[in-house]
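Thread: Newbie trying to understand structure tokens

Hi all, I'm a second-year student working on a class project, and my supervisor (Dr. K.) asked me to get a predicted structure for one chain before our next meeting. I've only ever worked with sequences, so writing a 3D structure as a token string is new to me. If someone could post the tokens and maybe explain what I'm looking at, I'd be very grateful. Here's the chain:
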Amino acid sequence: MLPIPAIDLIDGKCVRLTKGDYASKTTYRDDPVEVAREFADLGFPRLHLVDLDGARAGHVVNHRVLERIASATNLCIDFGGGLKTNEDLHAAFESGAQMVTLGSIAVREPERIVEWGRRYGQQQIIIGADALHGAIRISGWEQESGLKLIDFIKHYYDQGFRRVLCTDISRDGMLQGPATTLYKQLLQQFPDLLLIASGGVSGMHDLETLAQAAIPEAVFGKAIYEGRIDLPSVAKRFLC
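---
Reply by user tm_fold:
Sure, no problem. This is what the structure looks like when written as tokens:
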């Protein structure tokens, strides 16, 4: 399993929310570039970078931070938040993203996602499946979509997309363990899904649990900033 550290951005700073609630924002570090360098120095190959300002505004806001991180590290960055237009996607890739995570737009304009998959390659597109009680939510998790998680993933799976980042919103930022049972069910239904688990990781034992469940990749963030996980130990366990 590949562990992927995360940086969430508001006002260009490294923050975390709880269950996607912007009122719960905690600012951990002022310089996300410095944080990204620390990840890269430990040997982590990937970074999950989320523009929370962009997710709320409906367009990319923090692309300059993306550009700075891409210039300062060799991290393979997947970038999400506010990607709605051709211009947004172009800005993300031009600023150094190797992959993009598409959530709200994947709900509202599925035909556009198929077009982007043809243009940029489906392997560059991560479908963001953010769910609360089995239902997809959009716009920074603040709105219901009316779609069931399974139906949403199946639509894109049938179109040939294989990268899906699934966040159980009820667990995000709670440090109470990931939704391992849900992820195992998804992999049973979609066997070759390149599933990225997100939400709830509280320590090394949760990463071990996900690895034992054969989850391909896992994003973790708050456990880092709350000092609940030792990054050198994670790197030694999973990256060596």
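A couple of things are worth pointing out once you decode it. The longest helix spans residues 110-120. The two ends are 12 Å apart (CA to CA). Feel free to ask follow-ups in this thread.
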